[in-house]
Amino acid sequence: MKPLVAVDAGDPGEVLVALRGALSGGPAILPFPAGAPPLSPPAEVEKRVALVIETSGSTGRAKRVALSAGALLAGAAAADSALAGPGQWVLALPAHYVAGTNVLVRSIAAETEPAILAPGHFDPSAFVEAAASLTHSVRYTSLVPAQLATLLELAEAAPASDACAVLRRFDAVLVGGQATPQALLDQARALGVRVVRTYGSSETSGGCVYDGVPVGQTRAEVGDGELLLTGPTLAEYYLADPERTEAAFVVRDGARWYRTGDAGSIDADGVVTVTGRLDDVIVSGGLKVSLGVVERAVRDLPGMSSAVVVRAPSERWGEVPVVVAVAPRLSLAEVRAAVVPVAGRAGAPDSLLEVEALPLLPSGKPDRGGLERLAAERRAAHD
After folding, report:
1. How far apart are CA 369 and CA 258, in angstroms?
2. Containing H/E element for 293?
3. pLDDT for position 241
4. Could you report the per-residue pLDDT of 81-121, keeping only the tens digit for each?
5. How far apart are the C-alpha atoms of 105 and 74, rounded to whole Å?
């Protein structure tokens, strides 16, 4: 056993130093959001554990994912092999998220110093300044779609600006964290920005599938409609949660696999497509509807890139999709017209709820449980 030390991610530089020690055999670390130390962190973990990521996912149920140094470094090596090799990074994501710690791990593995943005509200000007400060010939960053959209707006407003130049200078801009609207990808590529869509989770040491292709030694399979992943980047276990560990990590054909909980498919070329969460399928009027499919169709519409689609009860249909958005630019009729060709008539949203801001979980993901309750209340009030 060895110590597990909680580290305040309000200072990403401190996380970098502590993580460097953890990868070298020192105390394991548990980064936590600024000013929100974890409750009763375990005093010790197994020697092979280097990092513990606390995440609530999209359901709000907390979990602590234990990752070994080997898994983290395997992820870094896989990324280098899939991209342009070791390079220098801009850290624009919170250092208590696995995507943020990945930037630090890959910087450590590459022996480069990352340019670190101050935690808090994303400042596109500060990002441009940090990106311009990079000196390595190979350059990367990792963003969520909302950050990318903000930077592209800045770049499009002045195509000859520093914003456009630094974005084009990156060998890859990794984008993950949620489904990335196709319109956003097209916008980036039209500006000459090399965007790579990533898929993964804390349980896989972050992104392990790039543009649908498993990287490094990662392999993907589909069992009973669920996407499963295996490889050296898998987490060890969930701290103090053997039941959840046993449910999520299974042995098949002599290999240990992670059950992602995502519905997906793999084509003849081995390209992975994620269609949504297994638990986001509703039955509306006797027909199955994937809320993930509906949400992707909605997010491809102008001004709807951050919209969330949740379920709501319906006396007539059983359950119906409801779109929740901040300042939607389109009417419900326009949204329905765009969704029907993709998800069928049963997938057409029943209502469009406007909110001032989307409620978020500590992980930064939309609070879907809270939004479902809001959708049910608003719909009941109008029935």
Report:
1. 24
2. helix 291-299
3. 93
4. 999 999 999 999 999 999 999 999 999 999 999 999 999 88
5. 10
The number of helices, as runs of H, and strands, as runs of E, in the chain is: 11, 23
Angle at CA 123, nearest 5°, toward 120 and 126? 115
Domain ranges of the chain: 2-266, 280-382
**pLDDT tens readout for residues 118-152:** 998 899 999 999 999 999 999 999 998 889 999 99
254, amino acid identity: G
Q: How would residue 60 be classed by pLDDT, with cut points 50, 70 and 90?
A: low
d(CA 272, CA 282): 23
The residue type of 170 is F
CATH annotation of 2-266: 3.40.50.12780
Nearest-10 crossing angle of helices 69-82, 12-23: 110
| Average pLDDT for 253-274 | 95
Report the run of H or E that residue 359 belongs to, with start and end.
none
Please give the backbone phi and psi of residue 270, each rounded to the nearest 5 degrees, phi first.
Answer: 85, 10
Partnered with residue 268 across adjacent β-strands are: none
What is d(CA 56, CA 99) in angstroms, rounded to the nearest whole number? 15
Q: Determine the straight-line distance between the first and last CA of the chain, rounded to whole angstroms.
A: 58
- Using DSSP's 3-state secondary structure scheme, residue 106 falls into helix
> Helix/strand/coil (H, E, C) string of 226-289?
EEEEECCCCCCEECCCHHHHHHHEEEECCEEEEEEEEEEEECCCCCEEEEEEHHHEEEECCEEE
CA distance 94 to 92: 7
Q: Predicted confidence band at 61 (pLDDT cuts at 50, 70, 90)?
A: low
Q: Enter the pTM of the model.
A: 0.88
| Average of per-residue pLDDT values in the chain | 93
Using a pLDDT cut of 90, give the percent of the chain over it: 81
CB atoms within 10 A of CB 192: 13
CATH class of the domain defined by 280-382? alpha beta
